[in-house]
Design goal:
This protein is α+β, with helices and mostly antiparallel strands. The strands form four sheets. Strands 5, 7, 8, 10, 11, 12 and 13 form a seven-stranded mixed sheet that branches. Strands 1-2-3-4 form a four-stranded mixed sheet. The chain has a three-stranded mixed sheet with strand order 6-15-16. Strand 1 and strand 2 form a beta hairpin. About 2% of the residues have low confidence.
Length: 368
Amino acid sequence: MTDTASPIREFTRDLLVRAGALVAPSGSGLDVIADAALSARLGLTEFQPLAFDRDEGTARDALLVDYDSPVFDRMGGLVDALGRVTFVRGPAVALKSIEPLAELTRALTLQNGVLRGAHITSADVVYFRFTFEYGLLADERAGGLTDVWVNPATRSVPRMVSWNDPDDLDEAAPQLTSEGALGLPWALAGAAVTAALAPPVRAFVDGLRRRRDRDVRRLSEYYLEIDHAIRRKLEGARPNADVWRREIDRLDATARSYRARLVDVGDRYGVRVHLRPVAVLACGLPTWRVKARLMRRNTTTEVAFSWNPVDGRIESRCCDGCNTPVSAAWLCDEKVHILCESCLSPCAQCGKVFCRACHQRCPRRHEP
């Protein structure tokens, strides 16, 4: 079992307790007593041992709970009935004195512009922590849970590495926006979790690629040997037309079989990525709001950044074109958007560099 068993166990325990079940730890598993309605809904017995390790589940005659088990899918019905956001109150933090321009220079590298006139004011900001379940599916599987924090007020993504302990977060009363509802920054969260998962996905794909290349090489060697044997037989079969036609048919069949096997190998090593939001926390935190002027040629705009006391640094701003968090940014000429390299790249047809935040497609007219 992977090290993702503990988050599944905690999630299962908290969810069942909230649903009214009696839950007690039993080794690395849980013992559950639920009422008839909850048991029927989840497919549990009146007294149900749960295991999060396959070997222990067999030894205890317990129901295995992992990301692929039917009971885990059925628990999603309980989650659907809950609120979308849990409001929490974080630990007390204090704002220390900072030098705004120095902090901005340390956190953001501008490739084609300059920063000027940075100043700070205090601000209370609502942060969101999105918990996502992800799965990588191919000839093998990998997956787990990952968290990303988002600050929609300044379109930034803090790390919050030292502030992920659930014991530090107590439930608080909901804080609604002026419209009476809380808007969730799904676009920022989606881009942030994509960036956060890039290293494990890359490692997973690299492992698949090595095994795929090994299988293709072995397959090629096998069919090449068959091909050579048929061609050697053809060299001696020229006087006999029947033998010649039969060996030609074998050669064609070998080529068709080789191509079909290559397609099978490609399908086996194709990667499917599943990403599903599991929970959202909303938490208020005092921050320094850092405002500065961004200058690109003759164009200037004022942009707000956030310095929070948990990270102790300026948070990574998101690209105005694709929402990806950036530490090295480019500025566009028209509106001084903060961009990643891909969102200020040349057009594939005409080579003109243009801002993807200003234009969805190249502003030049491309004649057919």
